[in-house]
Amino acid sequence: ILNVEQSPQSLHVQEGDSTNFTCSFPSSNFYALHWYRWETAKSPEALFVMTLNGDEKKKGRISATLNTKEGYSYLYIKGSQPEDSATYLCASSGSSNTGKLIFGQGTTLQVKP
Amino acid sequence: DAGVIQSPRHEVTEMGQEVTLRCKPISGHDYLFWYRQTMMRGLELLIYFNNNVPIDDSGMPEDRFSAKMPNASFSTLKIQPSEPRDSAVYFCASSFDRGKQYFGPGTRLTVT
């Protein structure tokens, strides 16, 4: 069974604050870790796909790191803006990498102006 | 590319009726996924296809649900008969070679 856990469940920050949240997954059953951004009333949008231990990806003010040995990934947002308000989902594929992803429950970020 | 296309965007139907949701994946993508979003369970995978062949349908809740992919550019998810507990947003997504998944806009289904 592949369980993907995200924390915190929700987060409220002020505009300009930097923030980060966690995704944990079974390190013994891993091939790739995906991060998605999901705005209300829209569909999930892929941010990053990471496979290598120590990998770090960046897209504008958002970055992510990966530790496959201990089974976690961090997503960082520097200088949060109201438009960053969304649910951030991580998903892991098992070691068989069949294409199937198991999604976490998400972290919902609210950035107040 | 127009992205993943789903239709209808909204569907309201009465309990017992047949519902068919449609999806057109991004051209060239070889994986297609059907997800359901509910408040209780979040985003759950129902079934996925690789090169039009169903690979894993373990997420399909009951025999009332069926999915087909007759060709690389079209898939359907059918619910017959529909029940109120099927009310949810249904997403279709596609990917190339197990990479990033590109989601369609979703179909919001309401069964009364």
Structural class of chain A: mainly beta
What is the alpha-carbon Rg of chain B in Å? 13 Å
Quick one: overall form of chain A? Answer: globular
How many helices of chain B in DSSP terms?
0
Label the structural class of chain B: mainly beta
Stretches with pLDDT under 50, minimum 5 residues of chain A: none
Helix and strand run of chain B: EEEEEEEEEEE
- Mean of residue pLDDT values of chain A: 93
Which stretches of chain B are poorly predicted, pLDDT < 50 over at least 5 residues?
none
Shape of chain B: globular
Average pLDDT for all residues of chain B: 95
Count of individual beta strands of chain A: 11
User: In percent, how helical is the residue content of chain A?
Assistant: under 10%
Number of helices of chain A: 0
Distance between the termini of chain A: 41 Å
Could you list some keywords that capture this structure?
heterodimer, A: 113 residues, mainly beta, five-stranded antiparallel sheet, 11 strands, 0% helix, B: 112 residues, four-stranded antiparallel sheet, 55% strand
Give me the secondary-structure topology.
The complex is a heterodimer of chains A (113) and B (112).
Chain A: E1 5-7, E2 10-14, E3 19-24, E4 32-38, E5 45-50, E6 56-59, E7 62-67, E8 72-77, E9 86-93, E10 102-103, E11 107-112
Parallel strand pairs in A: 2-11
Antiparallel strand pairs in A: 1-3, 3-8, 4-5, 4-9, 6-7, 7-8, 9-10, 9-11
Chain B: E1 5-7, E2 10-13, E3 19-24, E4 31-38, E5 42-50, E6 53-56, E7 65-71, E8 74-79, E9 88-95, E10 102-103, E11 107-111
Q: Can you walk through the features of this model?
A:
The complex is a heterodimer of chains A (113) and B (112). Chain A has 113 residues and is an all-beta fold. Chain A has strands at 5-7, 10-14, 19-24, 32-38, 45-50, 56-59, 62-67, 72-77, 86-93, 102-103, 107-112. Chain A is built from no helices and eleven strands. In chain A, strands 2, 4, 5, 9, 10 and 11 form a six-stranded mixed β-sheet that branches. Chain A has a five-stranded antiparallel β-sheet with strand order 1-3-8-7-6, with no helix packed on it. The termini of chain A are far apart. The model of chain A has no long low-confidence stretch (mean pLDDT 93). Chain B has 112 residues and is mostly beta strands. In chain B, strands 2, 4, 5, 6, 9, 10 and 11 form a seven-stranded mixed β-sheet that branches. Chain B has a four-stranded antiparallel β-sheet with strand order 1-3-8-7, with no helix packed on it. Chain B has strands at 5-7, 10-13, 19-24, 31-38, 42-50, 53-56, 65-71, 74-79, 88-95, 102-103, 107-111. The relative contact order of chain B is 0.34. The mean pLDDT of chain B is 95. Chain B has no helices and eleven strands. The interface between A and B is medium-sized, with 20 and 21 residues.
